[in-house]
Amino acid sequence: MRARDLAVEFPTVTLDTPALEAARLLADRDLPGLILIGDDGLPHSILPGTQVLRLAVPAYCQDDPALARVVDEAHADRFLHRLDGRTVRQCLPEEPRELPVAGPQATVLELASLMARTHSPLVAVVAGKRLIGAVTLQSLLDHALQL
Fold first, then answer.
1. Burial of 122 (0-12, 13-18, 19+ CB in 10 A)
2. Is residue 79's pLDDT more than 90?
3. Domain count, the chain
4. Is the model's pTM score more than 0.90?
5. Which one, of 142, 143, 139, lies nearest residue 10 by Cα?
6. Which pLDDT band holds residue 72 (cuts at 50, 70, 90)?
7. Cα–Cα–Cα angle for 102, 126, 93, rounded to 5 degrees
8. 99 is in which domain, residue-wise?
């Protein structure tokens, strides 16, 4: 099976989409991540849901998980509100990574290799200058386990 056979339509956001809106999209649609589209209409990057969390979780809690325990429950439950006023652009890692994009002819093993190498739960499938859709880790595993 090829990427074009596994690819499904997938929601996209732009770099200037509010981060809180992106988090809601991730939650509402139960998505593993988002495809960020650049000005040219092509994938600029893939934003795993964990990167949204990275921006929302205070750095001191990421550096020392024990400090997360001292935050009272009412404030701990509202940590995502730190995203208010920020954009998706601010959720991206500072150093660019390999973009998890594949052509429609990519095999399942090529997709799996790309996901593993880039630590991405999804791969954007692009033909020429057009986004066809995405292959998620879930759909890739579902397919591979059926064989």
1. buried
2. no
3. 1
4. no
5. 139
6. confident
7. 65
8. 3-146
